[in-house]
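Notebook, p. 212. Picked up where the previous page left off. The plan for this session was modest: take the two constructs that came back from the sequencing core last week, fold each one, and keep the raw output in the notebook itself so nobody has to go hunting through shared drives later. Recording the first one now, exactly as returned: residue sequence, then the structure token string.
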Amino acid sequence: MKMLEELFGLAGKVALVTGGARGIGEMVAQALVGAGARVYIASRDATACDAVAARLSEAGDCRALPCDLSTLDGIARLADALAQRESALDVLVNNSGVTWGAPLEAFPEAGWDKVMRLNLKAPFYLTTKLLPLLRSAARAETPARVVNVGSVDGLHISGFENYPYSASKAGLHHLTRHLARKLAPEHITVNAIAPGPFETRMLAPVRDALGEQFVRDIPRGRLGTPADIAGAVLYLAAQAGAYVTGAVMPVDGGISTCA
């Protein structure tokens, strides 16, 4: 048990999860709280952010920092708000994201820009704004961590017309590797997880449209669970993953193995 705590425990660590008020972000926040970290969750929906933080605090320490990451001003305000509360940041999880679907020849510029802005631009600029706090936490044996939440749609060709979503997630995967190369000498690791289908609000329209055949087409034959996310994120955020950087980890039930 002591070895497990040393490898996967996060007692005394500080973490920030963007988009932490719902879906995969909430699953990530719950896992980090359960491992002992003091977790800040950011979301544009202040009511949901406060409610989730209150619920997760029943099992640990979770605090709400409502913000809008779709603008550089919003990103700067979040970084400043965290800096006013903490002198170091051990774990940053860039999870906020959005999708948009439309026919190829009618895809609106507004949809393209919205997806790219939140899914790719925001993680880059938030990471750079938080580098001072990450550097304060970084040590050779216990590096600071950045975990980007990509998608299986960035690893294979989606069957849906969500062009900027898949492009943004593929871009985020490559950005992960680029930042990992740059920041490794500073004892900051940068990795990504690429989730497949999980029971979230974003997935609901797809599930409704395709029914149970959608689940049957997943090689593992089921949707992902909070435990699946917890295992992947805790490995990358805790001591167990201290020597891993630049990795993109599929958490997709085998979908990325399909043509």
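Okay, moving on. Second construct, recorded in the same format:
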Amino acid sequence: MENLQVMVVLFIIVVLGYALCKLGYMGEDFDRKLSSIVVDVTCPLLILSSVMGESLPDRTLILPLLGVGFLTYVLLLVFGFFVPRLIAADRDDQGMIGFALMFANVGFIGYPIVSSIFGAKAVFYAALLNMPNTFFIFTAGVMLVKGEYSVRKLNLKLLFSPAMIAAFVAALLVALDVHTPEIVARPVTMVGNITVPAALMIIGSSMARLPLHDIIGSPKVYVASVVRLGVVPLSLYFFFKECGVSDIVNEINTVVIAMPVASFGTMFCMKYGRNPALMTEMTFITTVGSIFTIPLITMLFC
């Protein structure tokens, strides 16, 4: 019940963004600027804040967690670059669907859910598992959104994006067992916390600019949503279970991957001048659907 309440609360913030757009407080230009702030400022600080607390994860688990995290996204590359061909014929749609299948809304929704299920300390483990997400979302994710599938077109500057730099610094802080002074951690955490409501309101505002029939979604949106919320997390759960990965690591990783489509999809579309309609539809449908699927998936752990 608590997991359901968390999902409902976050969905209400999406509805708030929808209402603010209809009332004229948000709009395309505002959303584009706010998206850039979230991508380049608040999200990097959110990453840093995840390792700024009184206690840090067991350092002996750092490498296993990072290993599972990287292997997870290597496997997700198959879903991202090959499965969409079975769902849509249009190349641009394939890229959008590929992004949706690969990247879950971990930082915005995943951490609160992980905390509610496994306790506050588990957020640190989720952050470590999510670190490879930062690398892949700013490389493979951008390639999918922009429709550029060649590695030769990869902009190496993305490896030095604010989010990537924050991930590197976070890993260093954990590895060296550095406890950040509160006078630094507090403002970093406060600004980083802007990420969650800002990203969700951007999704709601984007929805407000779509015709009703687009919000409801097309068949390919529902097929992609079923794969995103069901097939992807369950496949990875049973794969790692067979590989002998510890239950706690596998369970947290599964919950992280079971989140709805990453909010970055919509923000990347705006930042790179792509039509966000399909991405917003999938984000909306999976956000609603996850209210029911996440509690069902967590029943596997009982």
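Notes on construct two before I forget. DSSP finds 15 helices and no strands in the chain.
Flagging for discussion at group meeting.
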